[in-house]
């Protein structure tokens, strides 16, 4: 699901195994040997350096063109298949985690060890695993002996212990069933998103069509969906070149005609409008029927 915080093993034999998604770490290239195509990443979260090899970078680079010292990266904590030592894998240039990687997981508390102030969280997002959580990791503190009972629904961020490097829950928050259901509904909608490009657009009517490849639309051939400017999740600036823009959307139904149409449209890739200013008002719906297929 979209709530998992992390990235899968890169499949090169150095992964953590188990098929679950590991939390990503942020660090900088502390040392790099061009001759051996390897070096070390300094990771503040673990307070140690992790070995890094060229083959573990997501984006390949030519020999002799390795990342310079000081380059910000993110990575997953892995284990060398031969030596058993910790190493970096799934390394990505840039200090920001990819979308979704810091999102919250849901689970239920197992018995709380009052004398040692810790418990485990049974997490449905990590099948077969229980995640360690300490009293100090709860967002809202509670007095000794007043720990939440077993079965309490919580959300948390999947992190790592800075000393041992083992998985643990951080920023643990008590949640309601309604919060879980809302999160699941949002995930379900995200999983149903379609991706395509705007093939035609009429500025005077503020509408056009999005074409989706056959596989994405569940059809044997490309399919077009009607799209109106008012259905974009973020306001689009006046003069924006809609034709050719890559977008994602959710399949909806027109209230009047009953025909399928695109809703919750989002610009993808370089066309994203996040942070744009000077937004003009939206056009009306007049003339929409004339563009219907």
TrEMBL record:
This protein's superkingdom? Answer: Eukaryota
Q: Which SUPFAM superfamilies match?
A: Nucleic acid-binding proteins (SSF50249)
The record's listing under InterPro entries reads: NA-bd_OB-fold
* Gene3D superfamilies membership: Nucleic acid-binding proteins
- Indicate what this protein is called per its UniProt record: CSD domain-containing protein
């Amino acid at each position: 699901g979209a709530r998992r915080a992390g990235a899968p093993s890169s499949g090169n034999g150095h992964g953590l195994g188990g098929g679950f998604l590991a939390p990503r770490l942020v660090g900088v290239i502390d040392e790099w040997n061009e001759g051996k195509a390897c070096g070390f990443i300094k990771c503040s979260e673990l307070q140690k350096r992790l070995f890094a090899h060229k083959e573990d970078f997501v984006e390949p680079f030519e020999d002799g063109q390795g990342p310079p010292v000081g380059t910000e990266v993110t990575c997953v904590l892995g284990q060398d298949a031969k030596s058993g030592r910790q190493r970096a894998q799934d390394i990505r240039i840039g200090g920001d985690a990819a979308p979704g990687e810091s999102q919250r997981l849901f689970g239920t508390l197992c018995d709380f060890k009052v004398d040692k102030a810790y418990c485990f969280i049974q997490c449905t997002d990590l099948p077969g695993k229980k995640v360690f959580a300490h009293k100090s990791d709860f967002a809202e503190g509670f007095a000794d002996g007043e720990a939440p009972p077993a079965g309490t629904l919580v959300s948390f961020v999947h992190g790592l212990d800075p000393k041992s490097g083992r998985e643990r829950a951080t920023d643990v928050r008590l949640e309601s069933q309604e919060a879980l259901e809302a999160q699941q509904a949002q995930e379900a909608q995200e999983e149903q998103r379609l991706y395509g490009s705007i093939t035609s657009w009429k500025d005077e009517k503020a509408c056009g069509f999005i074409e989706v490849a056959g596989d994405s639309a569940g059809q044997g051939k490309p399919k077009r969906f009607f799209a109106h400017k008012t259905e974009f999740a973020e306001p689009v600036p006046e003069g924006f070149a809609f034709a050719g823009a890559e977008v994602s959307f959710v399949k909806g139904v027109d209230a009047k005609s009953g025909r399928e149409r695109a809703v919750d449209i989002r610009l993808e890739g370089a066309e994203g409008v996040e942070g744009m200013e000077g937004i003009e008002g939206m056009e009306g719906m007049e003339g929409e029927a004339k563009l219907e297929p």
